[in-house]
Amino acid sequence: MASSIIFFVGIYFLLNVALGGGAVEFDYSNPDEWGSLSPQFELCSSGKQQSPIDIVHAETIVNNTLHTLSRDYHLDSATLVNTGVSIKVKVKGKSEFDIDGKKYVLLQVHWHTPSEHLFNGIR
């Protein structure tokens, strides 16, 4: 279950940037300070659904209205890269995801280190 949550959180952030969420330089080691970095990040201090979040297994609600994630993996090689703020896997081959009828090609997956999110209170 936790690996599924990690996967979907990662896909959400990848899609957010790909669809124009943009990127701003900041230090992942201080997520409690994100709201003070810029006026556009104010909700990080006062909101309820912004990063960082603590995903608590006992409070997780299954949404049965979501469609099944369709995936078609065809990897021929992958490269693991430590960027200093993330661990990235760059992939070759044609792997695709279908989310509500829209296809996305997998180019890379990455995790921030240290993570800004918690699972059951653990970073």
Automatic annotation (TrEMBL):
Domain named Alpha-carbonic anhydrase: residues: 24-123
GO biological process, one term: one-carbon metabolic process
Stored InterPro entries: Alpha_CA_prokaryot-like (IPR041891), CA_dom (IPR001148), CA_dom_sf (IPR036398), Carbonic_anhydrase_a-class (IPR023561)
Pfam families: Carb_anhydrase (PF00194)
Keyword terms: Signal
GO molecular function terms noted in the UniProt entry: carbonate dehydratase activity; zinc ion binding
Ranges in coiled-coil conformation: none
Signal peptide (residue range): 1-20
PROSITE patterns noted in UniProt: ALPHA_CA_2
Listed name of the protein: Alpha-carbonic anhydrase domain-containing protein
